[in-house]
Amino acid sequence: MKVSIDNLNSMLLDVLKELGNIGAGNAATALAKMINKKVDMKVPKIKILDFKDVPDILGGEEKPVVGIYFQMNGDIKGNIMLVLDVGSARNLVDIMFNTRTNREKFDEMELSALSEVGNILSASYVNSLSTLINLDLKISVPSISIDMAGAILSVPAVQFGQVGDKVLFIETEFQEDEKQVLGDLFLIPNMESFETILKQLGVIENEG
Amino acid sequence: MKVKKIGMADLGALKAPGILTTLGLGSCVGIALYDTVNQIAGLAHIMLPSSKEIRNNKNKAKFADTAIDILVDEMIKLGAKKNNIRAKIAGGSQMFSFNIKNDILKIGERNVEATKKKLRDLNIEIVAEDTGGNYGRTIELDAKDGSLCVKTIGHGSKVI
């Protein structure tokens, strides 16, 4: 049987959960180091949803969200996208700059800081994945966009759309003091790389 | 008035009075078809240009080349006449950009091209379009007169 996102078995889900755990743990540690404060995290959730249900988790298609997008290179090729709701992005900026603002808009400096945090968080996941599957992985510089959730999420959805009809992502929640940051990380290997990962994890046999 | 929401990789048609809407189009393309004589409208939200390039192509509404055929059929079932059908298209933006060349990022542009080609093959005239850019769009199609309202965050709204 051909393994795809549409028919993932429970063992693979466990592996992905573990990956989410390690990745989020590393990300929380990296974030804590950067801001020099204690950062708590919740156990990440692995979610597999139909395209049409994805924007709902972020509060609807028209709700503004921040998307930070990377290209993944090395033994695995594909993309990584970190999506934060605007409130979480604001909290993250406030945690970093030690400020307390309620503005919905972000200035250049803040956008650059968000990209950098996105970079650190995504790199933590990629490093965990790299260690877990024993393959070489790198990520590009980030590209950031703030727009409707539907439009931002169409980017990973289109990429998943080439391999199946479902989207897989890891939901992570960080907390520093009373400020919460809820982020969704979409790991999008391209078609060949998806199979490479599954083979490396021993979830599917090497064919022929 | 009846409002029918069309999701990602989905399509639908209705007879006036009614509105078809799709929210947060990014690189996807919203294809609005309408027959003002019989007051029937159809809307498709496609994600990818061609069903032929993809192994998993069961969902016909996902692709420009297959969705439009089905949408026209659904409209004809409701009483539309093929010769009356006109088109307006929106979406196909590039939400993120990198310096390096990457086909997947150009998917919006390719979706628009594939949509235009398919409409040309079917002899359906494109009356108006609002495509490209780097921002999301919500569209609302009125089945009565085929007017298409395009809304954005920070780039205004207009009726085409």
Automatic annotation (TrEMBL), chain A:
<dbReference type="InterPro" id="IPR050992">
    <property type="entry name" value="CheZ_family_phosphatases"/>
</dbReference>
<keyword id="KW-0378">Hydrolase</keyword>
<protein>
    <submittedName>
        <fullName>Chemotaxis protein CheC--inhibitor of MCP methylation</fullName>
    </submittedName>
</protein>
<dbReference type="GO" id="GO:0006935">
    <property type="term" value="P:chemotaxis"/>
</dbReference>
<dbReference type="InterPro" id="IPR028976">
    <property type="entry name" value="CheC-like_sf"/>
</dbReference>
<keyword id="KW-0145">Chemotaxis</keyword>
<dbReference type="GO" id="GO:0016787">
    <property type="term" value="F:hydrolase activity"/>
</dbReference>
<dbReference type="InterPro" id="IPR007597">
    <property type="entry name" value="CheC"/>
</dbReference>
<feature type="domain" description="CheC-like protein">
    <location>
        <begin position="109"/>
        <end position="146"/>
    </location>
</feature>
<feature type="domain" description="CheC-like protein">
    <location>
        <begin position="12"/>
        <end position="48"/>
    </location>
</feature>
<dbReference type="Pfam" id="PF04509">
    <property type="entry name" value="CheC"/>
</dbReference>
Automatic annotation (TrEMBL), chain B:
<keyword id="KW-0812">Transmembrane</keyword>
<dbReference type="InterPro" id="IPR038592">
    <property type="entry name" value="CheD-like_sf"/>
</dbReference>
<dbReference type="GO" id="GO:0006935">
    <property type="term" value="P:chemotaxis"/>
</dbReference>
<protein>
    <recommendedName>
        <fullName>Probable chemoreceptor glutamine deamidase CheD</fullName>
        <ecNumber>3.5.1.44</ecNumber>
    </recommendedName>
</protein>
<keyword id="KW-0472">Membrane</keyword>
<feature type="transmembrane region" description="Helical">
    <location>
        <begin position="12"/>
        <end position="34"/>
    </location>
</feature>
<dbReference type="InterPro" id="IPR011324">
    <property type="entry name" value="Cytotoxic_necrot_fac-like_cat"/>
</dbReference>
<dbReference type="Pfam" id="PF03975">
    <property type="entry name" value="CheD"/>
</dbReference>
<dbReference type="InterPro" id="IPR005659">
    <property type="entry name" value="Chemorcpt_Glu_NH3ase_CheD"/>
</dbReference>
<keyword id="KW-0145">Chemotaxis</keyword>
<dbReference type="GO" id="GO:0050568">
    <property type="term" value="F:protein-glutamine glutaminase activity"/>
</dbReference>
<keyword id="KW-0378">Hydrolase</keyword>
<keyword id="KW-1133">Transmembrane helix</keyword>
<comment type="function">
    <text>Probably deamidates glutamine residues to glutamate on methyl-accepting chemotaxis receptors (MCPs), playing an important role in chemotaxis.</text>
</comment>
<comment type="similarity">
    <text>Belongs to the CheD family.</text>
</comment>
